[in-house]
Hints:
Largest sheet: 7 strands, mixed
Structural class: alpha/beta
CATH architecture of one domain: 3-Layer(aba) Sandwich
Number of helices: 9
Strand content: 15-25%
CATH topology of one domain: Rossmann fold
Number of strands: 13
CATH class of one domain: Alpha Beta
Bound molecules: S-adenosylmethionine
Helix content: 25-40%
Shape: globular
Low-confidence stretches: 1-18
Amino acid sequence: MRNDLGGHPATEPDSGHVAEPVRSFLQDVVDGLALSPAQLSPKYFYDEAGSRLFDHICELPEYYPTRTEMSILERSGPAIAARLGRDTLVIEPGSGSSTKVGLLLEHLEAPAGYVPVEISGEHMHTSLAPLRERFRQLPIHPVCADFTEPFGVPAGVPGHSGAVIFFPGSTIGNFPPDDAVHLLGRFRRLLDEHGGLLLGVDRRKDPEVLKAAYNDAAGVTAEFNLNLLRRMQRELDAVLDPDGFRHRAVWNDTESRIEMHLVSQGRQSITVGGREFRFHDGDPIVTEYSYKYSDNGIRDVAARAGFEITDGWTDERCWFSVLYLTPATG
Ligand SMILES: C[S@@+](CC[C@H](N)C(=O)[O-])C[C@H]1O[C@@H](n2cnc3c(N)ncnc32)[C@H](O)[C@@H]1O
């Protein structure tokens, strides 16, 4: 399988009889470490510990995206809900703690249901309790799945016509533009002509603001990044030294993205799945891209995926956008 950063399949690792989800984690790790530079998919950040660390990141003073997007949803919630209409089924790929969807649901007229789709299943189930409490009448149908693979809405979910895919958090920014087009194209095929996509997009801005957001003073983002190595130890019996790698986040202006790396401190190796991967001092493992979009950039991705942007809401500083996309006609 291609990972989110564009790796290619390599040779089959020595995986034995490992259950399927672990095997694909193992296969993706082995494939990714064989690339030059080595790459690991950001979707593997999110085990139970990683999901908790991400929630902590969202509260950090430097990490503006969550606060900014929530302020847009708070201020423009009624207008967004009016645009979505009544009886809407809300599907959220990568729902995390399902915090933002509450800001949408509270304004929606008679929502038909909520379908969170999350790779970090336990975290999703725990996080849904407050939402169930708050919206007692709302049918909630959680799906534990990788949204980059085909996934379906559970059978029997009512109100499927006119469904809206809610994709906040600028999770789209984790995908290089061609992969983003591919992913949104798949979302497009889940919708009928009455449906839409409510998309949270982080915008280009002062690089100093961006760099600070991914290099917080408290070191939580560094912990989040390093947790990927610890997860490989826990789940894949990888032999490695997490303290031998350092978190780094840099702004790549040409590609319009923040890049997160784990940088080798000295010569060392990682052994996993019966394979050994060697690192020299300063060698990076690329763990996440976070693309920041201009208006033209996101319009181009949307159009190539078969959508048109019909509405948009932003904050006073224009740092973040919540966009409504509908299937393009003609
Ligand atoms: C940046 S967080 C956003 C969370 C939430 N939507 C928000 O805006 O606050 C990304 C979330 O997507 C989930 N995720 C990432 N890649 C995924 C994948 N391929 N399939 C399913 N969930 C994924 C992660 O576990 C995480 O909870």
